[in-house]
Design goal:
mainly alpha, 13 helices, two-stranded antiparallel sheet
Length: 270
């Protein structure tokens, strides 16, 4: 009950701060493209170019085959697009407090929403990617269907997972600036340990396959693919789902405790 109350308080506090969160996210998003001639137009150009290059390289040059009877280029897009969101959010969330150190000293400001700002900003880019992916999928004969209705569930699951990690890494970065570099290295490892360029079915060693399943990101990436190309409901891999939410709950509540205990010392170090 205590943890349920904590989560309820988090949701209510976030809702009360929604307009502040919106303004901070908008400013963060605009800040990425400040000084460029095209401004936020680059936010749309970047995902279009990225996905077109991916399509051209794998569908036209290498003429990649299929994975689980699905075109490889679609299978890859459905895995790499959520990864971009995860990677961008973890990197941004880790540095969120250090970047906005001038806000830490403000008494009435809830510093805990700064990682949410970075995740929300990354979500805007992700939505651009997702919209373009839908168009490409439809062109290949995979139009949106009822399975797309569970996409918000995976967005929610990803955000809660990322927030727990970001609270931990953001708080530790205030004390140890090397944490941001460590996170970058971890992300490189996770990129190859997550089924983005490979499928779990390709791993024939049962022990190795079970070991790789310990990576909670596998549930998110495969869940995305289940929505857009496999036509699979999120609860079907129920063991993976239970494991993911156990890990996510530990990270979320553990991250909240760590952040709360370290928060009083931020002002002395920034």
């Amino acid at each position: 009950m205590r943890y349920a109350a904590e989560f309820g308080k988090f949701l209510s506090d976030t809702w009360r701060s929604r307009w502040l969160l919106y303004e901070l996210t908008k400013n963060d998003f605009r800040g990425r493209y400040l000084g460029s001639a095209l401004g936020i137009v680059w936010a749309l150009v970047q995902p279009i170019v990225t996905l077109l290059i991916m399509w051209f390289v794998f569908a036209r040059i290498y003429k990649s085959g299929q994975v689980s009877d699905k075109p490889f280029v679609l299978w890859l897009m459905a895995g790499i697009i959520p990864w971009y969101f995860i990677s961008e959010s973890m990197s941004g969330g880790t540095n969120s407090i250090v970047e906005k150190s001038f806000l830490v000293s403000k008494v009435a400001f809830r510093v805990s929403i700064l990682p949410i700002v970075k995740i929300s900003s990354a979500m805007v880019i992700h939505l651009f990617f997702f919209a373009i992916m839908i168009v490409i999928l439809a062109a290949y004969g995979f139009p949106p269907d009822r399975y797309y209705l569970q996409i918000p569930y995976f967005w929610f699951a990803t955000i809660i997972f990322l927030l727990g990690i970001s609270w931990i890494t953001a708080a530790l970065t205030v004390f140890f600036r090397d944490v941001s570099y460590f996170v970058s290295v971890v992300l490189q490892f996770l990129f190859w340990l997550t089924p983005i360029f490979w499928s779990p079915e390709m791993v024939h060693d049962e022990k190795l396959r079970m070991l790789l399943k310990l990576n909670p990101l596998q549930y998110l990436v495969e869940g995305y693919r289940g929505c857009v190309i496999y036509q699979r409901w999120f609860w079907e891999p129920y063991k993976s789902m239970i494991y993911f939410w156990i890990v996510t709950a530990l990270l979320f509540f553990g991250g909240a405790v760590i952040f709360r205990r370290l928060r009083p010392h931020f002002g002395d170090l920034l």
